[in-house]
């Protein structure tokens, strides 16, 4: 995680839509040292806005005020709410602003079309581990975004995790893989905890065992640079316990289920582009 407290913060950032992902970003940025006065939020529900103000000491403003005053606008509403938000924003957003959208499926060109000519737009797919400084965020520039705009957007997402640039044509696949990815991992934890209970372990013990196992395995993957097959083979003793489990995973089509699941998520992201 980059420490932001020692840096120059020319940019003010507005997070428009302080829901689950908006909060993960706000919390991650503040933990990384961004001064609260450099951040404003907008939120449709006053109770949620109050909650954010109390929890993070950030100012809640209207969408219009955010558009007029913040250098960078991070659009963090649901894809289905994007149209209404852009209707509110469009009279006030000038090409001096940088617009960052994190909505699944919504393309930079769809946003550019709703704003005055020349506004730079960058599409980013982050994920909720931003809360703990371990997000994976993938950035793709729209047609007006320059290297300088990309660097500004990266300066928002790097403090909360890893960043990568890819062509926008790959963003629906990224959404399926790393955007939704934490949910698959939590689903796995839930299922393996149930399995531990089936085998007679107390729930809390099963939970702790699997969380540490996933954490340790992720660190090994990241730090060893080894191929996952090699790491799995090192656990799989001839005639042992692991291969007995893997035979069942293959027999139940877990690999095929993951391929189908991610394809469905990619397709849903494409569908959301049409606001459905
Ligand atoms: N939740 C996740 O893990 C991720 C979500 N995203 C994207 O982030 C966006 C937000 O997702 P979530 O945070 O999960 O949804 P959410 O429903 O928790 O948050 C959206 C927030 O926007 C507010 N809102 C809606 N219209 C508004 C408006 N006109 N002005 C101000 N606030 C408004 C809602 O009241 C809500 O609090 C979506 O587009 C999603 O595709 C991207 C990556 C990961
Ligand atoms: O489920 C969703 O649509 C959002 C986008 C990626 C993660 N959550």
From TrEMBL:
Per the UniProt entry, what is one GO biological process? L-proline biosynthetic process
Q: What is its EC number?
A: 1.5.1.2
Q: What is its main location?
A: cytoplasm
UniProt-listed Gene3D superfamilies = NAD(P)-binding Rossmann-like Domain (3.40.50.720), ProC C-terminal domain-like (1.10.3730.10)
Give the signal peptide as a residue range, or say none if absent.
none
Domain Pyrroline-5-carboxylate reductase dimerisation, residue spans: 168-272
Its pathway, per UniProt, is:
Amino-acid biosynthesis; L-proline biosynthesis; L-proline from L-glutamate 5-semialdehyde: step 1/1
Q: Which reaction does it catalyse?
A: L-proline + NADP(+) = (S)-1-pyrroline-5-carboxylate + NADPH + 2 H(+); L-proline + NAD(+) = (S)-1-pyrroline-5-carboxylate + NADH + 2 H(+)
The yes or no answer to whether the keyword Amino-acid biosynthesis is present is yes
Residue ranges crossing the lipid bilayer per the database entry: none
Gene Ontology cellular-component terms for this entry are:
cytoplasm
According to the entry, every stretch annotated as the Pyrroline-5-carboxylate reductase catalytic N-terminal domain falls at 12-105
The UniProt keyword set, sorted, is:
Amino-acid biosynthesis, Cytoplasm, NADP, Oxidoreductase, Proline biosynthesis
Localization of this protein: Cytoplasm
Q: Which InterPro entries match?
A: 6-PGluconate_DH-like_C_sf, Acid_Pase_AS, NAD(P)-bd_dom_sf, P5C_Rdtase_cat_N, P5CR-like_CS, P5CR_dimer, Pyrroline-COOH_reductase
UniProt: NADPH binding residues = 63
Q: Which HAMAP family match?
A: P5C_reductase
Q: Which family does it belong to?
A: Belongs to the pyrroline-5-carboxylate reductase family.
Q: What does this protein do?
A: Catalyzes the reduction of 1-pyrroline-5-carboxylate (PCA) to L-proline.
Q: Which PANTHER family match?
A: PYRROLINE-5-CARBOXYLATE REDUCTASE, PYRROLINE-5-CARBOXYLATE REDUCTASE 3
Q: What is this protein called?
A: Pyrroline-5-carboxylate reductase
Q: Which gene encodes it?
A: proC
């Amino acid at each position: 995680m980059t420490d932001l407290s020692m840096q120059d913060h020319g940019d003010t950032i507005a997070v428009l839509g302080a829901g689950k992902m908006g909060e993960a970003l706000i919390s991650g940025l503040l933990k990384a040292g961004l001064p609260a006065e450099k951040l404003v939020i907008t939120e449709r529900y006053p109770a949620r806005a109050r909650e954010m103000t109390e929890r993070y000491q950030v100012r809640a403003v209207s969408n219009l005020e955010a558009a007029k005053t913040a250098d960078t606008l991070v659009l963090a509403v649901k894809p289905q709410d994007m149209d209404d938000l852009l209707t509110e924003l469009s009279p006030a957003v000038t090409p001096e602003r940088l617009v960052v959208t994190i909505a699944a499926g919504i393309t930079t060109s769809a946003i550019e079309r709703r704003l005055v000519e020349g506004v730079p737009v960058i599409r980013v797919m982050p994920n909720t581990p931003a809360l703990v400084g371990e997000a994976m965020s993938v950035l793709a520039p729209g047609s007006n975004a320059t290297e300088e705009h990309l660097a500004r957007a990266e300066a928002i997402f790097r403090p909360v995790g890893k960043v990568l640039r890819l062509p926008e044509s790959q963003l629906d696949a990224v959404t399926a893989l790393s955007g939704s990815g934490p949910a698959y991992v939590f689903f796995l934890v839930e299922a393996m905890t149930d399995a531990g209970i089936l085998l007679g372990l107390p729930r809390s013990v099963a939970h702790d065992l699997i969380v540490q196992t996933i954490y340790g395995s992720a660190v090994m993957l990241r730090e060893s640079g080894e191929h996952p097959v090699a790491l799995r083979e090192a656990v799989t003793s001839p005639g042992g316990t692991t291969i007995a489990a893997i035979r069942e995973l293959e027999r139940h089509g877990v690999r095929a289920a993951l391929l189908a699941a991610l394809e469905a998520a990619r397709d849903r992201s494409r569908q959301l582009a049409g606001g459905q």
